[in-house]
Specification:
It contains twelve helices and 17 strands. The protein is of the alpha+beta class. The strands form three sheets. Strands 1, 2, 3, 4, 5, 6, 15, 16 and 17 form a nine-stranded mixed sheet that branches. Strands 7, 9, 10, 12, 13 and 14 form a six-stranded antiparallel sheet that branches. Strands 8-11 form a two-stranded antiparallel sheet. Helix 3 packs across helix 12. The termini are close together. The structure holds (2S)-amino(hydroxy)ethanoic acid and manganese (II) ion (MN) (2 copies).
Length: 400
């Protein structure tokens, strides 16, 4: 069985999808979950899924499925973006899945279903759509999650309520393969065409708030201040120090979002709310880092006379990829790009992590130019995109 994906149709669909929420800077997109651009992009994808002979189905979170008849392999990713995103993060996996589904239909099989999960980029949580679909977070609890502007998931997803059906039963799928850009530097630096993922790191993510005293920035002596930002600064320096004998060079942690109140030049900030996210391939290390984070936040708050509160912590454990699916990807990579591929871990999180709760999963990476992602500059050479599509199609043919 050989599948012949059509590179022209594939690339044209990719470029058409990036028009939804086009940022007007390079090929960047602004297409956050439940935004007008996201919902319009999903409507466009639904029409494409229908044209491919798939049954269109939205689940309660707004994740969009194109379902083949009977047992099928599920391919896909997500089509929502970060607040400033690239044109390929997620979108590549959805459009490559659609192309393989079309090629499979034209070849008379195998059955291929397609999915674009909702809010993988975590406007409300962490890979929220597939986390809820995989039963790791109840819909009721998820509905209470809020974005950085305080909008609840319940409110945001109500804009798609008229489209929503039930959650799709995973039993109809034989496995899940997600094609994705690497979002890191290694394939690009080595000049290699593909990466077959061995495992995906685990993650923890929460918001922390220091509550001090808002006051005049000119008349309040430094030693009398209860400055929430200074507490955040001290916290950040202390955890970096205390992580040193816990972390490895692969461990990462990020304070990516900070909200000061009242956020004015001449006012000592009374409140600092910030995101605290950390990732590692070892679940125990993630737990040890959490202990350091919580203890250090309490210590800084007490020492400076501030109040402290923690938001809900979201987390996913590290996941190993399925051996059988990986073998098919490795054989196809060697066939399509002999000697120009590698096995590698994923430092980025993906919907595949959640699907592993129910299904055998695997992932395929293509290079990111200069390793850039989660930025308008994100890009990949079209030859590499097409090569990755061929590897994916070859793996699906091997598995059928
Ligand atoms: O953050 C991540 O790893 C994913 O791209 N949302
Ligand atoms: Mn992604
Ligand atoms: Mn992403």
């Amino acid at each position: 069985m050989t599948l012949k994906p059509d590179p022209t149709r594939f690339l044209s669909n990719l470029h058409e999808l990036r028009q939804f929420g086009a940022a007007g800077v390079g090929k960047g997109v602004v297409r956050p979950a439940y935004s007008e651009a996201d919902i319009a992009a999903r409507a466009w994808l639904a029409a494409k899924f229908e044209d491919a002979g798939l049954k269109v189905h939205y689940d309660p979170m707004g994740s969009l499925f194109g379902l083949a008849e009977g047992p099928s392999i599920l391919l896909g990713s997500h089509s929502d973006s970060q607040p400033e995103g690239g044109w390929l993060d997620g979108a590549l996996g959805v459009i490559a899945a659609l192309e393989v589904a079309c090629a499979a239909r034209e070849a008379g099989g195998p059955a291929v279903s397609v999915v674009s999960f909702q809010d993988e980029e975590g406007r409300f949580g962490v890979t929220t759509g597939s986390t809820v679909w995989s039963g790791q977070l109840g819909l009721e609890k998820a509905d209470k999650l809020t974005d950085r502007d305080g909008i609840s998931l319940a409110e945001a997803r109500s804009t798609m309520a008229h489209l929503a059906g039930d959650f799709v039963d995973p039993a109809q799928f034989t496995g899940f393969i997600e094609m994705h850009i690497e979002q890191g530097p290694w394939l690009d630096q080595a000049g290699e065409a593909a990466g077959v993922v061995t495992d995906i790191v685990g993650i923890r993510d929460m918001r922390i708030t220091f509550e001090g005293e808002q006051n005049h920035a000119g008349t309040t002596p430094m030693h009398l201040r209860r400055d929430a930002f200074q507490a955040l600064g001290a916290f950040n320096a202390l955890i970096a120090e205390r992580f040193q004998n816990v972390v490895t060079p692969q461990t990462v942690w990020t304070i990516g979002h900070v909200k000061l109140h009242p956020d004015a030049h001449s006012i000592v900030p009374g409140t600092a709310t910030f995101s605290m996210q950390w990732r590692d391939g070892d679940g125990d290390r993630l737990r040890r880092m959490e202990e350091i984070i919580r203890a250090t936040a309490h210590e800084v708050a007490e020492a400076r006379g501030l109040a402290l509160s923690f938001g809900p912590m979201l987390g996913l454990e590290p996941v190993a990829m399925d051996a059988k699916l990986r073998t098919a990807l490795e054989a196809s990579a060697e066939n399509c790009a002999p000697g120009s591929w590698r096995k590698m871990p994923s430092g980025a999180l993906h919907d595949a992590t959640n699907l592993a709760q129910y299904l055998p999963v695997a992932m395929l990476f293509v290079p990111s130019i200069n390793g850039i992602s989660h930025a308008f500059e994100e890009d990949t050479n079209e030859a590499d995109l097409v090569k990755g599509l061929e590897v994916l199609a070859g793996a699906v043919a091997r598995l059928s």
